[in-house]
Amino acid sequence: MMARFSDFRLKGLVFLAIVVFALPMFISNPFHYGLATQTALVAAAVVGLNLLVGFAGQISLGHAGFFGLGAYFSAIMTSNYGWSAIPALVLGAVFVAIIAWIVGRPILRLKGHYLSMATLAVGFIIAIILNNEREITGGPDGMPVPSFDVFGWELSVFGQYSLFGMDISGDLAWYLFAGVVLLVAVWLAQNLIDSPIGRALRSVHGSEVAASVVGVNTAKYKSLVFVISAVYASVMGALYGHFQGFITPSVASFDFSILLITMVVLGGMGSTIGVIIGAVVLELLPQLLADFQEMEMVLFGLILMLTMIFMPKGLLPTAANLLAKRRAKSAGGDA
């Protein structure tokens, strides 16, 4: 059974890689490249959130706070102190991991709506701090973020680069970079899922009492996955800030937290490729509905509501179940 799931995940990763590297053949508009890059970075953050929600069964309604902390930490260190982006990103991830560990230990003892309220409060506190500390963060007006540099090589949407003898634009370079980051994020998540840690997380999701009885330290593993998901959010937040070139406290807002959790639920909790599909749908849907002007948000909400009514397990798991039923029906008919 485990071998079959591992094979399925490998196929999913290969399919995702094909899509990532084939997509530039179908787009050339800088706006579309920007949207694809943003989607890849947000999807990678959602992959981390899925480890917490989909595999460990722990809710987080303030996860955008960690995304915002990563973005602002890297922005402050590179803008105000002249740090390179990589050390700032890494130190920011360590800082967020420490915060998540300190916060996670007590709040993850809670369950149900009490846990939801606690994580929501964490997100609100972070957003308020980012809004009020004007001298450090720029307050509601936000702050500029320098280009992302790797050992002196700056990655900018306005640049022109050479890769294996081919000249590529800054938009394409950022997209390819974000695509590789997404693939690495998925690969790391899948390896974690297939490890003893992943099995412990699934046991916690199934029943904390049963997991404790067989010797699983539930508090330890819940705190660990909370930290891992926060680090995912922090790293993607830092990259998002460097890509955009400017950030505001909206990156840590309640609305963004709800968007992240909705991506997980819509795509299918516990499905790594599924949550990426959820991220793609929720990033693209507002663009497709933009022509409807005043009705945009009404239609957006209606589509989400109908999807969750008729596909409660999420897009990919529902589609996979339907396909399995058709195959079983066809096999039964042939027999």
Automatic annotation (TrEMBL):
The keyword Cell membrane applies. It is a multi-pass membrane protein. It is found in: Cell inner membrane. The chain crosses the membrane at residues 12-29, 60-77, 83-102, 114-130, 172-193, 224-243, 258-285, 297-316. Keywords: Cell membrane, Membrane, Transmembrane, Transmembrane helix. InterPro entries: ABC_transp_permease (IPR001851), LivM-like (IPR043428). PANTHER family: BRANCHED AMINO ACID TRANSPORT SYSTEM PERMEASE, HIGH-AFFINITY BRANCHED-CHAIN AMINO ACID TRANSPORT SYSTEM PERMEASE. This is Branched-chain amino acid ABC transporter permease. It comes from Marinobacter aromaticivorans.
